[in-house]
Amino acid sequence: MRDTLTSLRYRYWPDHLLGEILSKRWTETAIPVILLLIVGFALSRSIDHFLSPSSLADTARQAGEIGFIGLGMALVVIVGGIDLSVGSIFALTDFCALYLLDVLNWPVPAVVVATLACGALLGAVNGVLIGYLRLRAFITTLITLIIYRSAFDLLIQRYSNSIAAAFPDIPSWNFIGGGDVFGIPSVALVYIAIAIFGHIFMTRLRPGWHITAIGGSRRSAYNSGIPVRRTIALCYVASGALTSIAALFFAARLGTVGGDIGVGLEVIVLTATVLGGITLGGGKGSVAKSLVGVLIVLLITNGLTTLNARGGINRMALAGILLVAAMVDIRWQKNRTRIISKVYVAPTYHALPPPPATEIGRGGPFEQNDKLRDVELIGLGRIEAPEDVILDRHNNLYAGSRHGDIMRFFAPDYQRMEVFAHIGGQPLGMAFDRQDNLYVCIGGMGLYRIKPDGTVEKATDETNRSMHSVNDDSRLRLADDLDITDDGLIFFSEATVRYEMDEWPIDGLEARGNGRIICYDTKTGATHTALRGLKFPNGICVASDGRSILFAETFGCSIKRLWFAGPKKGQVEVVMDNLPGYPDNINLASDGNYWLALVGMRSPSLDLAWKMPGFRRRMAKRVPVDEWLFPNINTGCVVKFNEQGKILESFWDLRGENHPMITSMREHRGYLYLGGIMNNRIGRYKLENADPNFVQYDKRWGKAS
């Protein structure tokens, strides 16, 4: 009774939702938006007409001007830098625009182009010093702040009277400063257009990805071939150009070159950047976050001004907010993993019956033997982590490598090998289709297709998102094994929707139903989720009936059947529910039965711990990962079973000299080929009484023409 109650509690109690919320990127935008709404509501209740149309129009003009500078600052911060000179650049470009227009009488288009060039040039100085000469961004932009401000002070001493005396009445200039379209200020329209382009640039274009990658890790970006120095320099150029756009609208609106222009602007923009959720550490940020931060700061400053707060109080309030926001940002980034690990890892109750005996002398279908003692070794020391192995119609052998390659060993002796295709991720399950295209599940990337000439194409890397899930589970995190039906449907397992490939032990610690089976239609290109709630689903094999698939639940120690066609469509049946080890890949045998790899054997300690969610939770919090209780993956075996789940034969390597861990096996022309994700070799075992002409794909689809 106690076990039943505990099982119900940990099955339905949503104790992992807080961790999912904290760990997702959309919350980093949601929190600033909530803060914006709170500030706006509080000020609207305290100040009459604070959100009136005229007040909102004025706020939109200010938001547009400061928003341009905020976009530039966001770009610089995302790439891993900072720009303290934006206030001085703003002042200088404001002077440039008014001097060219009022003193030199340049036409408005020429003024606009020259002002943008001036801002880009001032930003380029920072870019060269920081990007190419690799000076510290903080001290460099602090120095240029002083230099640019000094230059501005010298210029206005000489030309301020000339600028103030001129009052040009130019319609196009007036439209820039105070015009609108259907009540929307011109500055807001231009900002919206640039913001949309900025969003597309950062999220859909390769240069935007390069910026984020550099902010995340400059060394990794450099090793990946990204032009780090040039990209950083161009970000500062863009920041200067965006600041000059803001100065143009400001100059057209007010037409002044007062000595306090741009003073403290860097504090305002930095505060907006941090409040919007753009981390000062670089590598994270968006246009939406920049806009939200600007609106929060403007509402606060305008509210304090309306409440007759002195300028000193305004600046002090912004500085205090910046201090608190920066402290929270820095401390959160430093302790984020630790905080999330305390609430995100949510073990559940998981009870398994006592495993069947495997010891020598105990009898039974799983009794240990030494049949794999003299297995022939292929590619010893020349391949690493061949998780799955497969052979083509010409008897060539293929296996994945942890270096992101598909290796091909040539028949008949498999001594000569080559890189068949480079993918970049860890290849896991593999299967050929009728046209000899090799489909591969790649951890962290999805399902890919390799043509016979070695060309790599993406098949799918996402599926439909479940509407009831807090976690965005549309991206494929750990595509594992696959098989292809006669109609071109590819069923493949995704072991977990919560963790990445290198975090699979955490999924085992939780023992939740975090996995699912995905279906990809090669004819339409559509992808959908066929089955959810599985405990680390792994091996997939189309059954001999052609209307169902067999799949392995690794941490459930079971084999199940999913019907995808026929009268039982959608039903799930248990084939084997109490294996002595953790099942991995499944493949057809020449006699119509099935081969199954047990990647490791169960241990009494982990079986007991799976019944104690509280113990596993404390272990995750207090014990280093390398000291956790892990599934025993040092000893494995291969078994043959039939449609009814009866074990027909088992194959062991008692001393673990050749294959201590077996993740896959493939029968081909009388031999059994063995793979293991932690091995540095492929095994080849001669089968007795096996069909020497058996080729899996020839048997299913006939010989290729």
TrEMBL record:
UniProt main location, coarse: membrane
Strictosidine synthase conserved region domain mapped to chain residues: 480-566
GO molecular function terms noted in the UniProt entry: hydrolase activity; transmembrane transporter activity
The entry's keywords: Cell membrane, Glycoprotein, Membrane, Phosphoprotein, Transmembrane, Transmembrane helix
Superkingdom to which the source organism belongs: Bacteria
Membrane topology term: Multi-pass membrane protein
Spans traversing the lipid bilayer: 68-92, 104-125, 137-156, 176-201, 233-255, 261-280, 287-307
Pfam families with a match to the protein in the record: BPD_transp_2, SSL_N, Str_synth
InterPro entries: 6-blade_b-propeller_TolB-like, ABC_transp_permease, Strictosidine_synth_cons-reg
A single GO cellular-component term on record: plasma membrane
Compartment(s) where it occurs, according to its Swiss-Prot or TrEMBL record: Cell membrane
Protein family: Belongs to the strictosidine synthase family.
Record protein name field: Monosaccharide ABC transporter membrane protein (CUT2 family)
Lineage: Bacteria, Pseudomonadati, Pseudomonadota, Alphaproteobacteria, Hyphomicrobiales
